[in-house]
Design a protein that fits this description.
single chain, alpha/beta, 10-stranded mixed beta sheet, two-stranded antiparallel ribbon, 12 helices, 23% strand, globular
């Protein structure tokens, strides 16, 4: 299926083991014509072979690198392969499942509202399309004035986060908002002529917030279209071959560098609770998605806090090694 109007760019989020489910979901549930650019950042051999076969059979463009990619690096590579005449780019992570009609509803919203960015109702979990992760939201810089002191803080909020879809369905309607995430998002390609490429200094966090702030600052508009529904599926079928990328993707160094860059870029107050909380939680994603579940498996399902903390402390030097090893390999090429 090809069309100059819409190009999907699929890229790795944190693992590769949902690749087949992701791709099959898109082809099975999408009737609106699209072109597809698939960015494969050093996936394991079985996934690489699967994607090569699918690219030949389905006729999409496959772009592979021999190194792992941070999300914005992968998206920018994909953007370079989108034809200029493609009006819309739809970024989709490789751990997302979509529902019938998802794409045409995003396009209809963009057309009818002349929107710059449109996000779907984004759900989360293995029980597909049941629990809300994001139904639009807020993202802005706020000024807090106290006497002669002015603090610049980031305000960020998800709408209906963690609410069952069935419980709030009647409250969900198309609306203009300030916030979307890259799990799945439609973007009018012309905005990149104004804001430039995605910021690759944001290696693993705040990239969606940065993008939305840039769009708003450039005069663009962001909408949520809840009639379009997708689900991102973290940790489903997690495999050992995912680990090298996963541990790098959520490394302490990548997260710390991203937070510092984001704060300096937007001239935000250094000691804001927003950042202090995230510095305290460095590695939260990999600890909760992999380390703690692994400990519970060997402890017969029991939670042993002192053992978890011991393993986390022991893992941090290994995580630094993984990150530095990756950087060394990148610099050598």
């Amino acid at each position: 299926m090809t069309s100059a109007r819409v190009t999907l760019v699929i890229s790795p989020r944190e693992r590769f083991s949902y690749t087949q489910q992701n791709l099959e979901s898109i082809y099975e549930n999408t009737r609106y014509p699209f072109s597809l650019v698939y960015v494969d950042g050093n996936s394991p051999a079985p996934v690489r072979r699967y994607l090569e076969t699918q690219a030949r059979e389905r006729g999409f463009e496959l772009v592979r690198t021999d190194r792992y990619l941070a999300p914005n690096q992968a998206r920018n590579i994909g953007l370079q392969h989108v034809k200029p005449e493609s009006e819309y780019v739809v970024f989709v992570d490789n751990d997302v499942s979509v529902t019938p009609g998802w794409l045409e509803k995003l396009v209809s919203c963009a057309d009818e509202e002349t929107a710059t960015v449109v996000c779907p109702l984004t759900c989360i979990g293995k029980n597909l399309h049941q629990k809300i992760h994001l139904a639009g939201g807020e993202a802005r810089i706020v000024l807090e004035v106290n006497g002669e002191t002015t603090k610049r803080k980031i305000h960020e909020k998800h709408y209906f986060v963690n609410r069952p879809v069935a419980e709030v369905r009647e409250k969900l309607h198309r609306q203009q908002c300030e916030f979307a995430e890259f799990h799945c998002v439609l973007v009018r390609q012309s905005i990149f002529l104004e804001i430039g490429a995605l910021d690759e200094e944001l290696l693993n966090t705040r990239e969606h917030t940065d993008f939305c702030l840039n769009v708003t600052q450039a005069g663009g508009t962001i909408f949520c279209e809840p009639d379009s529904v997708v689900t991102y599926v973290p940790d489903s079928g997690f495999e050992w071959s995912d680990l090298p990328f996963f541990m790098l993707r959520w490394s302490d160094e990548w997260e710390e560098r991203s937070l510092k860059h984001f704060r300096k870029k937007w001239n935000l107050t250094k000691k804001d609770k927003y950042f202090q909380k995230r510095y305290r939680r460095l590695g939260y994603r990999r600890h909760n998605a992999f380390l703690k579940p692994s400990i519970r498996r060997i402890s017969f399902g029991k939670t042993i806090p002192w053992l978890e903390q011991l393993v986390i402390r022991a893992e941090r030097p290994l995580n630094r090694y993984i990150t530095h090893r990756h950087q060394t390999l990148v610099e050598q090429k």
